[in-house]
Amino acid sequence: MQAWTVERAAEELLRREDKRIDGEPLSDTWPELDLETAYAVQDETLRLRLARGETLIGVKLGLTSRAKQQRMNVDSPLVAWLTDAMVLPLGVPVPTHKLIHPRVEPEIAFVMGRKLSGPGVTAATAICAVEKVFAGLEVIDSRYRDFRFTLPDVVADNASSGLYVTGSVGRSPDELDLALEGCVLSVGGSVVYTATGAAVQGHPAEALALAANTLARRGKRIEAGWVVLTGGVTDAVPLSAEAPVSVDFAGLGRLTVGS
Ligand code: 0L1
Ligand code: MG
Question: Of 5, 72, 86, 232, whose Cβ has the fewest other Cβ atoms within 10 Å?
Fold first, then answer.
């Protein structure tokens, strides 16, 4: 087998995504894959996405809650990219024929009023750059069989990006205590997980600060108008044809996705 390079790995991950096939984690045959190289693969997949006409519209954090870290057996958060092709319009069924093994997780989403550049960003400065907060549901998908991966694998795979939907009404961040924002995830009307926003790094604004500071190490920043998904508040649930998945947030409202 040919040796992996950043370019080959990026092409392979996008090939799996486009053909809707999963495969073994890169690290199985590329044990030298470290975090720096994995972010280079992620950036190369973004370059390829933009070259085929997608637009960069934001960032997503992954594995910012203990629930997600424990489930995926990975103990650090990560940052990845959002493009316009990942937007699922409100009320539109999830196009499962384009996904491999979709799972759904609740997210607290920010829309940025101002740009945010690290280093040295704190949660307090981060939240001042947020214009509106929205309820979100992310439909994650993985190009790795059974979602089996190491941290560098999932970084390279753009944090299992798939699709996401946000609610129609945004709230000002000063209207809410996001650490205490209650979140109930239900499948087919039955409650599966509950949490509050504090599950996300103690406060979703901490996750936003972490994204800005992590991006700064790579010479990048969060732009005004971007969407930031702060990471799954609870573990994800599989999306099945039988039962829609809903989230009820205390202040941000309700969202449902189904196929
Ligand atoms: O597949 C995964 O669960 C990794 C991405 C994590 C997404 C999140 O925590 O929001
Ligand atoms: Mg997520």
Answer: 5
Tens of pLDDT, residues 175-234: 999 999 999 999 999 999 999 999 999 999 999 999 999 999 999 999 999 999 999 999
Other beta carbons within 10 Å of 56: 14
C-alpha 3 – ligand 2 centre gap (Å): 31
Strand partners, 110: 133, 228
Please give the torsion angle defined by the CA atoms of residues 40, 140, 171 and 225, in that order, rounded to the nearest 10 degrees.
Answer: 30
Provide the terminal-to-terminal Cα distance of the chain, rounded to the nearest Å.
Answer: 38
Ligand 1 pocket residues where CB is under 6 Å: 62-64, 68, 72, 105, 138, 140, 142, 147, 154, 159-160, 231-232
Residues with Cβ within 8 Å of 101's Cβ and at least 6 positions away in sequence, in order, are 22, 141, 142, 147, 238
Among 63, 104, 143, 154, which residue has the most ligand 1 atoms within 8 Å of its CB, making it the best to mutate? Answer: 63
pLDDT in tens, 18-69: 999 999 999 999 999 999 999 999 999 999 999 999 999 999 999 999 999 9
Both tokens of residue 220?
A: 């990048």
Spatial neighbors of 200 by CB under 8 A, at least 6 apart, are 64, 65, 108, 206, 207, 230, 231, 233
6-257: CATH architecture: Alpha-Beta Complex (3.90)
Radius of gyration of the chain (CA): 17
Tell me, in angstroms, the distance from the centre of ligand 1 to residue 65's CA: 9
Domain ranges of the chain: 6-257
User: Quick one: how far is CA 12 from the chain centroid?
Assistant: 20
Question: Distance, CA 106 to ligand 2 centroid (Å)?
Answer: 7
